[in-house]
Write a structure and sequence with these properties.
18 strands, elongated
Protein backbone atom coordinates (compact mmCIF):
# COMPACT_ATOMS: atom_id res chain seq x y z
CA UNK A 1 0.00 0.00 0.00
CA UNK A 2 2.82 2.34 0.91
CA UNK A 3 4.50 1.72 -2.46
CA UNK A 4 1.27 2.68 -4.27
CA UNK A 5 1.03 5.90 -2.26
CA UNK A 6 4.69 6.71 -3.01
CA UNK A 7 4.08 6.04 -6.71
CA UNK A 8 1.11 8.41 -6.75
CA UNK A 9 3.15 11.11 -5.01
CA UNK A 10 5.95 10.63 -7.55
CA UNK A 11 3.58 10.59 -10.50
CA UNK A 12 1.90 13.85 -9.53
CA UNK A 13 4.87 16.17 -10.18
CA UNK A 14 5.64 14.41 -13.47
CA UNK A 15 2.08 14.85 -14.72
CA UNK A 16 2.12 18.48 -13.57
CA UNK A 17 5.41 19.07 -15.44
CA UNK A 18 4.08 17.73 -18.73
CA UNK A 19 0.78 19.56 -18.39
CA UNK A 20 2.65 22.79 -17.69
CA UNK A 21 4.91 22.22 -20.68
CA UNK A 22 1.91 21.58 -22.94
CA UNK A 23 0.19 24.72 -21.67
CA UNK A 24 3.36 26.71 -22.30
CA UNK A 25 3.62 25.44 -25.87
CA UNK A 26 -0.01 26.32 -26.57
CA UNK A 27 0.56 29.81 -25.20
CA UNK A 28 3.64 30.18 -27.39
CA UNK A 29 1.67 29.05 -30.44
CA UNK A 30 -0.89 31.78 -29.75
CA UNK A 31 1.85 34.36 -29.46
CA UNK A 32 3.38 33.21 -32.77
CA UNK A 33 -0.01 33.46 -34.44
CA UNK A 34 -0.62 36.93 -33.01
CA UNK A 35 2.68 38.28 -34.35
CA UNK A 36 2.12 36.66 -37.76
CA UNK A 37 -1.35 38.19 -38.01
CA UNK A 38 0.03 41.61 -37.07
CA UNK A 39 2.83 41.63 -39.65
CA UNK A 40 1.01 39.95 -42.57
CA UNK A 41 -0.04 43.25 -44.28
CA UNK A 42 3.58 44.41 -44.18
CA UNK A 43 4.80 41.09 -45.59
CA UNK A 44 2.32 41.28 -48.45
CA UNK A 45 3.70 44.71 -49.36
CA UNK A 46 7.26 43.37 -49.23
CA UNK A 47 6.35 40.45 -51.48
CA UNK A 48 4.67 42.71 -54.02
CA UNK A 49 7.68 45.01 -54.08
CA UNK A 50 10.04 42.06 -54.65
CA UNK A 51 7.72 40.67 -57.32
CA UNK A 52 7.66 43.97 -59.17
CA UNK A 53 11.47 44.22 -59.18
CA UNK A 54 12.91 40.79 -60.06
CA UNK A 55 16.63 40.32 -60.66
CA UNK A 56 18.59 37.56 -62.39
CA UNK A 57 21.15 35.26 -60.78
CA UNK A 58 24.08 37.06 -59.11
CA UNK A 59 22.45 40.38 -60.00
CA UNK A 60 20.13 40.52 -56.97
CA UNK A 61 21.59 43.79 -55.66
CA UNK A 62 18.32 45.56 -54.91
CA UNK A 63 16.80 42.45 -53.34
CA UNK A 64 19.90 41.77 -51.23
CA UNK A 65 19.97 45.37 -50.02
CA UNK A 66 16.32 45.17 -49.01
CA UNK A 67 16.91 41.89 -47.14
CA UNK A 68 19.99 43.21 -45.36
CA UNK A 69 18.26 46.45 -44.34
CA UNK A 70 15.23 44.62 -42.97
CA UNK A 71 17.34 42.21 -40.93
CA UNK A 72 19.55 45.03 -39.61
CA UNK A 73 16.48 46.95 -38.49
CA UNK A 74 15.44 43.88 -36.50
CA UNK A 75 18.77 44.02 -34.68
CA UNK A 76 20.35 40.98 -36.33
CA UNK A 77 24.05 40.66 -37.10
CA UNK A 78 24.17 40.95 -40.89
CA UNK A 79 26.87 39.95 -43.35
CA UNK A 80 26.56 40.90 -47.00
CA UNK A 81 28.38 40.25 -50.26
CA UNK A 82 28.69 36.49 -49.72
CA UNK A 83 29.28 35.00 -53.18
CA UNK A 84 28.47 38.43 -54.59
CA UNK A 85 24.93 39.17 -53.44
CA UNK A 86 24.29 36.60 -50.69
CA UNK A 87 23.16 37.79 -47.25
CA UNK A 88 23.46 36.16 -43.82
CA UNK A 89 21.49 37.35 -40.82
CA UNK A 90 22.26 35.97 -37.35
CA UNK A 91 19.68 36.05 -34.56
CA UNK A 92 20.88 34.95 -31.14
CA UNK A 93 18.15 33.83 -28.74
CA UNK A 94 18.15 34.62 -25.05
CA UNK A 95 18.23 30.94 -24.10
CA UNK A 96 20.84 28.29 -24.79
CA UNK A 97 20.14 25.94 -27.64
CA UNK A 98 21.20 24.69 -31.08
CA UNK A 99 22.28 26.66 -34.12
CA UNK A 100 19.68 26.27 -36.88
CA UNK A 101 19.29 27.87 -40.29
CA UNK A 102 16.72 28.87 -42.88
CA UNK A 103 17.49 29.48 -46.55
CA UNK A 104 15.55 31.47 -49.15
CA UNK A 105 16.58 32.05 -52.77
CA UNK A 106 16.32 35.52 -54.29
CA UNK A 107 16.82 35.27 -58.06
CA UNK A 108 14.21 35.50 -60.81
CA UNK A 109 13.80 34.17 -64.36
CA UNK A 110 14.08 35.67 -67.87
CA UNK A 111 10.34 35.41 -68.53
CA UNK A 112 7.99 38.17 -69.64
CA UNK A 113 5.18 38.23 -67.10
CA UNK A 114 1.60 37.84 -68.33
CA UNK A 115 -0.34 37.56 -65.06
CA UNK A 116 -2.04 40.95 -65.31
CA UNK A 117 -1.38 41.58 -61.60
CA UNK A 118 -1.26 45.26 -60.62
CA UNK A 119 2.23 44.67 -59.22
CA UNK A 120 3.46 42.54 -62.14
CA UNK A 121 7.04 42.98 -63.27
CA UNK A 122 7.92 45.54 -65.93
CA UNK A 123 11.64 44.82 -65.67
CA UNK A 124 13.51 43.81 -68.83
CA UNK A 125 16.94 42.62 -69.88
CA UNK A 126 18.78 41.65 -73.06
CA UNK A 127 19.50 37.97 -73.62
CA UNK A 128 20.98 36.53 -76.82
CA UNK A 129 20.50 39.90 -78.48
CA UNK A 130 16.78 40.05 -77.71
CA UNK A 131 14.80 41.96 -75.10
CA UNK A 132 13.03 39.75 -72.59
CA UNK A 133 11.12 40.44 -69.40
CA UNK A 134 12.09 39.37 -65.89
CA UNK A 135 9.69 37.58 -63.56
CA UNK A 136 9.52 35.83 -60.21
CA UNK A 137 7.97 32.79 -61.89
CA UNK A 138 9.30 30.27 -59.36
CA UNK A 139 8.15 31.83 -56.11
CA UNK A 140 11.46 33.17 -54.89
CA UNK A 141 9.73 36.42 -53.91
CA UNK A 142 7.50 34.30 -51.64
CA UNK A 143 10.50 32.44 -50.21
CA UNK A 144 12.38 35.65 -49.43
CA UNK A 145 9.33 37.25 -47.84
CA UNK A 146 8.81 34.21 -45.60
CA UNK A 147 12.45 34.41 -44.51
CA UNK A 148 12.01 38.05 -43.51
CA UNK A 149 8.69 37.33 -41.78
CA UNK A 150 10.22 34.45 -39.83
CA UNK A 151 13.07 36.70 -38.70
CA UNK A 152 10.53 39.29 -37.55
CA UNK A 153 8.49 36.78 -35.52
CA UNK A 154 11.54 35.27 -33.87
CA UNK A 155 12.93 38.73 -33.08
CA UNK A 156 9.71 39.64 -31.30
CA UNK A 157 9.77 36.32 -29.42
CA UNK A 158 13.51 36.38 -28.81
CA UNK A 159 13.04 35.70 -25.10
CA UNK A 160 11.55 32.30 -25.99
CA UNK A 161 14.18 31.39 -28.59
CA UNK A 162 16.58 28.65 -27.58
CA UNK A 163 19.79 28.98 -29.55
CA UNK A 164 20.78 30.86 -32.69
CA UNK A 165 19.09 31.13 -36.08
CA UNK A 166 20.91 31.85 -39.34
CA UNK A 167 18.82 33.50 -42.07
CA UNK A 168 20.42 32.84 -45.46
CA UNK A 169 19.29 34.84 -48.52
CA UNK A 170 20.89 33.00 -51.43
CA UNK A 171 21.58 34.18 -54.98
CA UNK A 172 21.41 32.18 -58.19
CA UNK A 173 19.34 29.09 -57.42
CA UNK A 174 18.01 29.02 -60.96
CA UNK A 175 21.54 28.63 -62.35
CA UNK A 176 22.30 25.94 -59.76
CA UNK A 177 25.41 27.75 -58.50
CA UNK A 178 24.33 30.01 -55.64
CA UNK A 179 24.37 27.60 -52.71
CA UNK A 180 27.70 26.06 -53.71
CA UNK A 181 29.22 29.51 -54.21
CA UNK A 182 28.08 30.70 -50.77
CA UNK A 183 29.63 27.62 -49.17
CA UNK A 184 32.88 28.17 -51.10
CA UNK A 185 32.87 31.76 -49.87
CA UNK A 186 32.91 30.54 -46.27
CA UNK A 187 29.25 30.88 -45.28
CA UNK A 188 29.65 28.36 -42.43
CA UNK A 189 33.32 29.01 -41.69
CA UNK A 190 32.69 30.83 -38.40
CA UNK A 191 29.26 29.54 -37.42
CA UNK A 192 27.73 26.29 -38.66
CA UNK A 193 24.16 25.12 -38.00
CA UNK A 194 23.22 21.60 -36.98
CA UNK A 195 20.18 21.66 -39.30
CA UNK A 196 18.80 23.80 -42.11
CA UNK A 197 15.27 24.28 -43.49
CA UNK A 198 13.69 25.79 -46.60
CA UNK A 199 10.41 26.17 -48.42
CA UNK A 200 9.67 25.87 -52.10
CA UNK A 201 6.33 26.93 -53.52
CA UNK A 202 4.23 23.96 -54.64
CA UNK A 203 2.29 24.61 -57.86
CA UNK A 204 0.21 21.45 -57.40
CA UNK A 205 -0.95 21.97 -53.80
CA UNK A 206 -3.69 24.33 -52.71
CA UNK A 207 -2.87 27.14 -50.33
CA UNK A 208 -3.16 25.82 -46.77
CA UNK A 209 -1.41 22.54 -47.50
CA UNK A 210 2.24 21.56 -47.09
CA UNK A 211 3.77 18.57 -48.84
CA UNK A 212 7.07 16.79 -48.29
CA UNK A 213 9.15 13.95 -49.72
CA UNK A 214 10.40 11.46 -47.11
CA UNK A 215 13.90 11.17 -48.63
CA UNK A 216 14.86 12.32 -52.13
CA UNK A 217 13.03 15.54 -52.93
CA UNK A 218 14.78 16.67 -56.14
CA UNK A 219 16.96 15.06 -58.76
CA UNK A 220 20.51 15.25 -60.08
CA UNK A 221 20.44 17.67 -63.02
CA UNK A 222 22.96 16.44 -65.59
CA UNK A 223 23.01 16.56 -69.38
CA UNK A 224 24.98 16.54 -72.57
CA UNK A 225 25.71 18.55 -75.71
CA UNK A 226 26.38 16.39 -78.76
CA UNK A 227 27.58 17.38 -82.22
CA UNK A 228 27.48 14.72 -84.96
CA UNK A 229 29.64 15.69 -87.92
CA UNK A 230 29.57 14.83 -91.63
CA UNK A 231 30.95 16.10 -94.93
CA UNK A 232 27.39 16.76 -96.06
CA UNK A 233 26.02 15.88 -99.50
CA UNK A 234 23.01 16.08 -101.79
CA UNK A 235 19.77 14.60 -100.46
CA UNK A 236 19.40 12.51 -103.63
CA UNK A 237 22.81 10.90 -103.09
CA UNK A 238 22.73 9.79 -99.40
CA UNK A 239 25.41 7.12 -99.76
CA UNK A 240 27.98 9.85 -100.41
CA UNK A 241 28.13 10.98 -96.76
CA UNK A 242 27.09 10.20 -93.24
CA UNK A 243 23.60 11.49 -92.48
CA UNK A 244 23.89 13.15 -89.04
CA UNK A 245 20.10 13.49 -88.77
CA UNK A 246 19.60 9.73 -89.05
CA UNK A 247 22.42 9.08 -86.58
CA UNK A 248 20.97 11.60 -84.15
CA UNK A 249 17.51 10.08 -84.45
CA UNK A 250 18.95 6.63 -83.71
CA UNK A 251 20.64 8.00 -80.60
CA UNK A 252 17.43 9.62 -79.36
CA UNK A 253 15.54 6.32 -79.71
CA UNK A 254 18.40 4.22 -78.29
CA UNK A 255 18.51 6.37 -75.15
CA UNK A 256 14.79 5.81 -74.52
CA UNK A 257 15.20 2.06 -75.07
CA UNK A 258 18.09 2.09 -72.61
CA UNK A 259 15.97 3.79 -69.94
CA UNK A 260 13.13 1.29 -70.35
CA UNK A 261 15.28 -1.86 -70.74
CA UNK A 262 18.56 -1.30 -68.90
CA UNK A 263 17.49 0.71 -65.85
CA UNK A 264 15.76 -0.86 -62.85
CA UNK A 265 12.09 0.15 -63.08
CA UNK A 266 12.25 1.28 -59.43
CA UNK A 267 15.08 3.72 -60.18
CA UNK A 268 13.46 6.84 -61.61
CA UNK A 269 15.47 8.07 -64.59
CA UNK A 270 14.57 10.68 -67.20
CA UNK A 271 16.50 11.46 -70.39
CA UNK A 272 14.96 14.19 -72.52
CA UNK A 273 16.57 15.38 -75.74
CA UNK A 274 15.01 18.80 -75.77
CA UNK A 275 16.96 20.32 -78.63
CA UNK A 276 17.79 18.74 -82.02
CA UNK A 277 18.99 21.12 -84.76
CA UNK A 278 20.23 20.18 -88.22
CA UNK A 279 19.89 21.20 -91.81
CA UNK A 280 18.91 24.20 -93.90
CA UNK A 281 17.03 22.70 -96.85
CA UNK A 282 15.00 19.61 -97.70
CA UNK A 283 17.41 18.35 -100.38
CA UNK A 284 20.66 18.78 -98.43
CA UNK A 285 22.10 16.28 -95.96
CA UNK A 286 23.73 18.66 -93.48
CA UNK A 287 27.30 18.70 -92.28
CA UNK A 288 26.27 18.51 -88.63
CA UNK A 289 23.48 17.79 -86.20
CA UNK A 290 23.41 19.25 -82.68
CA UNK A 291 21.55 17.64 -79.79
CA UNK A 292 21.10 18.87 -76.23
CA UNK A 293 19.67 16.72 -73.45
CA UNK A 294 18.82 16.86 -69.77
CA UNK A 295 19.29 13.77 -67.59
CA UNK A 296 17.60 13.34 -64.21
CA UNK A 297 18.44 10.67 -61.61
CA UNK A 298 18.59 10.25 -57.83
CA UNK A 299 21.79 9.54 -55.89
CA UNK A 300 25.47 9.43 -56.82
CA UNK A 301 25.69 5.80 -57.89
CA UNK A 302 22.73 6.03 -60.26
CA UNK A 303 23.96 9.22 -61.93
CA UNK A 304 27.31 7.64 -62.83
CA UNK A 305 25.74 4.39 -64.04
CA UNK A 306 23.51 6.37 -66.39
CA UNK A 307 26.42 8.54 -67.53
CA UNK A 308 28.39 5.43 -68.57
CA UNK A 309 25.41 4.03 -70.46
CA UNK A 310 24.73 7.28 -72.31
CA UNK A 311 28.38 7.62 -73.35
CA UNK A 312 28.45 3.98 -74.50
CA UNK A 313 25.31 4.31 -76.62
CA UNK A 314 26.47 7.51 -78.33
CA UNK A 315 29.91 6.04 -79.03
CA UNK A 316 28.55 2.78 -80.44
CA UNK A 317 25.85 4.34 -82.61
CA UNK A 318 28.29 6.86 -84.09
CA UNK A 319 30.95 4.23 -84.70
CA UNK A 320 28.44 1.93 -86.38
CA UNK A 321 27.53 4.77 -88.77
CA UNK A 322 31.16 5.84 -89.20
CA UNK A 323 30.17 9.28 -87.87
CA UNK A 324 32.52 11.72 -86.17
CA UNK A 325 31.12 13.24 -83.00
CA UNK A 326 31.94 15.52 -80.11
CA UNK A 327 30.24 14.84 -76.77
CA UNK A 328 30.28 17.20 -73.81
CA UNK A 329 28.69 15.48 -70.80
CA UNK A 330 28.23 17.65 -67.72
CA UNK A 331 27.31 16.92 -64.13
CA UNK A 332 25.07 19.62 -62.71
CA UNK A 333 23.16 20.21 -59.50
CA UNK A 334 23.18 17.40 -56.93
CA UNK A 335 20.02 15.53 -55.98
CA UNK A 336 18.34 16.89 -52.84
CA UNK A 337 17.72 14.39 -50.06
CA UNK A 338 15.68 15.31 -46.99
CA UNK A 339 17.17 13.97 -43.78
CA UNK A 340 14.67 11.32 -42.54
CA UNK A 341 15.43 11.78 -38.82
CA UNK A 342 15.18 15.57 -39.03
CA UNK A 343 11.94 15.33 -41.01
CA UNK A 344 10.46 12.99 -38.40
CA UNK A 345 11.42 15.45 -35.67
CA UNK A 346 9.73 18.48 -37.22
CA UNK A 347 6.61 16.93 -38.79
CA UNK A 348 4.51 17.12 -35.58
CA UNK A 349 5.46 20.81 -35.27
CA UNK A 350 4.48 21.47 -38.89
CA UNK A 351 1.18 19.63 -38.48
CA UNK A 352 0.33 21.68 -35.39
CA UNK A 353 1.24 24.92 -37.15
CA UNK A 354 -1.03 24.38 -40.17
CA UNK A 355 -4.03 22.99 -38.31
CA UNK A 356 -3.57 19.22 -38.26
CA UNK A 357 -1.99 16.24 -40.03
CA UNK A 358 -4.63 16.33 -42.77
CA UNK A 359 -2.92 19.43 -44.17
CA UNK A 360 0.58 17.90 -44.28
CA UNK A 361 0.87 15.35 -47.07
CA UNK A 362 3.62 12.97 -48.14
CA UNK A 363 4.38 13.34 -51.84
CA UNK A 364 6.52 11.73 -54.50
CA UNK A 365 9.97 13.22 -55.15
CA UNK A 366 10.34 15.78 -57.90
CA UNK A 367 12.48 15.33 -61.00
CA UNK A 368 13.23 19.05 -60.86
CA UNK A 369 16.55 20.44 -59.68
CA UNK A 370 17.20 22.32 -56.43
CA UNK A 371 20.61 23.57 -55.28
CA UNK A 372 19.52 23.50 -51.64
CA UNK A 373 21.08 20.05 -52.07
CA UNK A 374 24.54 21.56 -51.51
CA UNK A 375 23.51 22.64 -48.02
CA UNK A 376 22.01 19.19 -47.47
CA UNK A 377 25.41 17.62 -48.24
CA UNK A 378 26.96 19.71 -45.46
CA UNK A 379 24.34 19.35 -42.72
CA UNK A 380 20.97 17.64 -42.12
CA UNK A 381 18.33 19.46 -44.16
CA UNK A 382 14.62 19.47 -44.94
CA UNK A 383 12.80 21.25 -47.72
CA UNK A 384 9.01 21.54 -47.45
CA UNK A 385 6.71 22.26 -50.37
CA UNK A 386 4.31 25.12 -49.60
CA UNK A 387 0.94 25.03 -51.33
CA UNK A 388 0.28 28.24 -53.27
CA UNK A 389 -2.47 27.27 -55.74
CA UNK A 390 -5.29 29.83 -55.45
CA UNK A 391 -8.70 28.46 -54.48
CA UNK A 392 -10.21 29.38 -57.87
CA UNK A 393 -7.60 27.39 -59.84
CA UNK A 394 -6.93 23.66 -60.12
CA UNK A 395 -3.21 24.30 -60.44
CA UNK A 396 -0.66 26.89 -61.49
CA UNK A 397 2.70 26.31 -63.17
CA UNK A 398 6.08 27.60 -62.06
CA UNK A 399 8.39 28.87 -64.82
CA UNK A 400 5.29 30.05 -66.67
CA UNK A 401 4.52 33.69 -67.58
CA UNK A 402 1.09 33.21 -65.96
CA UNK A 403 2.30 31.68 -62.67
CA UNK A 404 0.13 32.85 -59.76
CA UNK A 405 0.88 32.27 -56.07
CA UNK A 406 -1.79 32.85 -53.45
CA UNK A 407 -0.44 35.35 -50.91
CA UNK A 408 -2.29 33.57 -48.11
CA UNK A 409 0.60 31.11 -48.27
CA UNK A 410 2.95 33.73 -46.79
CA UNK A 411 1.58 33.83 -43.21
CA UNK A 412 1.24 30.03 -43.30
CA UNK A 413 4.90 29.70 -44.25
CA UNK A 414 6.02 32.21 -41.62
CA UNK A 415 4.00 30.58 -38.86
CA UNK A 416 5.31 27.14 -39.80
CA UNK A 417 8.97 28.14 -39.98
CA UNK A 418 8.82 30.18 -36.77
CA UNK A 419 7.16 27.24 -35.03
CA UNK A 420 9.91 24.87 -36.17
CA UNK A 421 12.58 27.10 -34.67
CA UNK A 422 10.75 27.85 -31.43
CA UNK A 423 9.69 24.25 -30.74
CA UNK A 424 12.82 22.48 -32.02
CA UNK A 425 14.25 20.08 -29.45
Amino acid sequence: MRSKVNFIFLLGPIVFFFLSMEAGEKDLNKRIEAVVEKITPELIEIRRDLHAHPELAFQEKRTAAKVASYLQNLGLEVRTGIAGTGVLGILRGLKKGPILAMRADMDALPITEATGLPFSSKEKTIMNGQEVGLMHACGHDIHTTILLGSARVLSELKSELKGTILFIAQPAEEYGDGAAEMLKAGLFREIKPEAIFAFHVDDEARVGFIRYAPEYAAANVDGFDLMIESEGCHGSDPDSCVDPIVVGAQIVLALQVMVSREIDVHDDTVITVGSFHAGTARNIIPAKAELEATIRTYGDSRRFVVKEKVERIIKNVCEAANARYNLQYYLGTLALRNDPALLKKILPIVQEAVGGPQYVIEARPSMGGEDFSYFAREIPAVMLWLGVVPENLSRTSVHSPTFLADEKSIPIGVKTMASIFLHYR
